[in-house]
Amino acid sequence: MEAHQMIAKGCTFSVLDRDAHISQLKDQHWDLIVIGGGVTGCGIALDAAARGLKTVLLEKEDFASGTSSKSTKLIHGGLRYLKQLDIGLVRETGTERAIVHRLAPHLVIPEKMLLPLTDGGTYGKLGTSFGLWVYDLLAGVKPEDQRIMLNKQEAHQKEPLLNPDTLRGGGYYAEYRTDDARLTLELAKAASAYGALAMNYMEVDDFLTGKDGHIQGIQATDKLSGETLSLSAHQVVSAGGPWVDGIRKKAAPLGTKHLQLTKGIHLVFPHHVLPVRQSLYFDVPDGRMVFAIPRGKVTYVGTTDTFYSGNLDRVLVTRNDADYLVSAVNSVFPSVQVGMSDIVSSWAGLRPLIHQDGKSPSELSRKDEVFTSPNGLISIAGGKLTGYRKMAKKVVDRVIKTITKKSGISFSPCKTHTIKLTPEPFSSAKEVEAYTEELRKKLAGCGLHSDHADYLVGNYGRQSAAIVADLQLSVSASPEIALACSEVRFGVKKEAVARAEDFFVRRTGRLFFDIDGIEEVRRPVLDEMQTLLSWSADRRRAEEGLLDQALHDATHFAAQKTVLNPTPK
Ligand code: FAD
User: What is the pTM of this model?
Assistant: First the structure.
């Protein structure tokens, strides 16, 4: 059964039903409690609920507020793993990206990538041609989408900003782009449509153990009300991303394996300042590879890879992180010469990787790993956005084995490869395009631009219809304000938007991709939220403060130094 057919039976996903959800949380003995609402935890909750486990997912902040809104936003086969000869990982991520595209064709979109070949660059023509051929082969790419090698003129035509003096050609190959936070959210919504209870702003503080010392539940705090609650379950899983070791330590001492966090940042430039025509994956003078990706009104560039041991709850872009990427951009596009003042937004995220002695950040494996503590906590870390489904399957298989051994109850096999990720899903990219075209015509009648149709469909798929139907156009407010207000009503009622930041950062991506547009819609959106959620004046002020901090962090750079590209010890 598809997720959308389950909605009548499943849990709602509205912050307006929070009190009912909290009563439901306390009343039940759960099969599974999942800690962490990033892509990994939401993937696990969907898999488990779809197999019939009574599942609850608890996220201490908002869904995708950790690493899962700070990635490069690619669903990719991991070309860099090919260089590290990690054939298994390339094959797995290559196969997975095709599956995730099928599950959400409006959200996981084919995107051709250009890898320029230059004088003095890391890559030669023969090696690149062979490497990309193997990459396509491992990922099972259809013949019509397989890589082509371009000569100098062809590569320059694809991307006129590349330096004609050093350009020698290029490899042109298939990848997919996505919005990591929206993907995570749609997984959480699909999980709740299958009956999982997924709640944001619910922090797991501690574990409850039985007489035998085995974990039997958790203690959590509702961060919106301050209430603490105790929940019992057959099994607890931690998908806490960078917080995994901290959570593991609350259950039992860490074993020999532990996390090694590395930080990666992205910078956002207005598209007219960095007018790349096409997504690029280019090498920079220190031998690392960097992406430049056009998206609507902006181009974003990333990433870096540096060891991190600072505050997990507020990861900042430092001035020298930003300097590094600005130099990278200027080395590959010398005619552009961007400066720090051209940066309009940015984000920084942490890779929860598994520590390996003597390896530099870029050499650390991106493989996932499952740890089971002596008192039964299962934790998962490492991996990629792209591989979330396989990671979830691995964990849920293990959970089911444990529960079945204890109770004799059996559950159905994994079926997430067939579960579409939004209500009324699209069946193909063609259908997405046809729907977008229809919406463009409709929006033109409301004074909205055709770009709004692309934005709406890319964000919400066919759920755009509900947002457009609820547009309250008036002569006193711009169509942009009417659209944002309709979106926030949808967000509160259908997408667990509880704070202003949830809306501006993770439901709509405005903080990163349309930061200038926030000023115009901010006040009416907050008014709308205040009415819907009955905020007091104090709560409103607190929300304004949190939004201001998010805006500040995206547009300012911290002074402390990051050791860029350290050599392995
Ligand atoms: P997170 O998203 O961090 O989720 C963990 C969640 O647990 C957090 O939301 C946190 O708030 C919550 N939590 C922690 N403690 C508690 C608690 N006590 N109670 C309740 N909740 C708790 N992968 C790709 O496939 N493609 C890419 O292009 C890509 N680019 C990347 C670029 C960068 C710079 C980085 C850093 C990573 C990139 N990745 C990419 C990797 C990918 O983003 C991560 O592997 C993935 O997002 C990790 O998801 P997660 O759910 O494991 O962790």
Answer: 0.95
Q: How confident is the model at residue 134 (pLDDT cuts 50, 70, 90)?
A: confident
- Residues facing residue 375 across a β-bridge: none
For residue range 518-568, list pLDDT tens digits in order: 999 999 999 999 999 999 999 999 999 999 999 999 999 988 766 555 543
Of 92, 249, 378, 384, the one to substitute when testing ligand 1's pocket (max ligand atoms within 8 A of C-beta) is: 384
- Taken in order 95, 434, 456, 467, the sign of the CA dihedral is negative
Distance CA 239, CA 382 (A): 10
Is the CATH code 3.30.70.360 the one for domain 108-177+259-363?
A: no
Pick the CATH number of 429-555 from 1.10.3300.10, 1.10.8.870, 3.20.20.370, 2.60.120.200: 1.10.8.870
Which segments of the chain belong to CATH 1.10.8.870?
429-555
From the CB of 71, is ligand 1 less than 6 Å away? yes
> What CA–CA distance (Å, rounded) separates 504 from 497?
10
Is residue 173 within a helix (H) or strand (E), and if so which, with residue range? strand 167-177
Cβ-proximal residues to 262 (8 Å cutoff; 6+ apart), any chain: 305, 306, 307, 308, 350, 351, 353, 361, 364
Q: Which CATH class is domain 15-67+182-257+365-407?
A: alpha beta
Q: What is the pLDDT of residues 104-115, one digit of tens each?
A: 999 999 999 999
How much is the mean pLDDT over the chain?
Answer: 92
Rounded distance, CA 195 to CA 182, Å?
20
| Ligand 1 in reach of 264 Cβ (< 6 A) | yes
300-321 residue pLDDT tens: 999 999 999 999 999 999 999 9
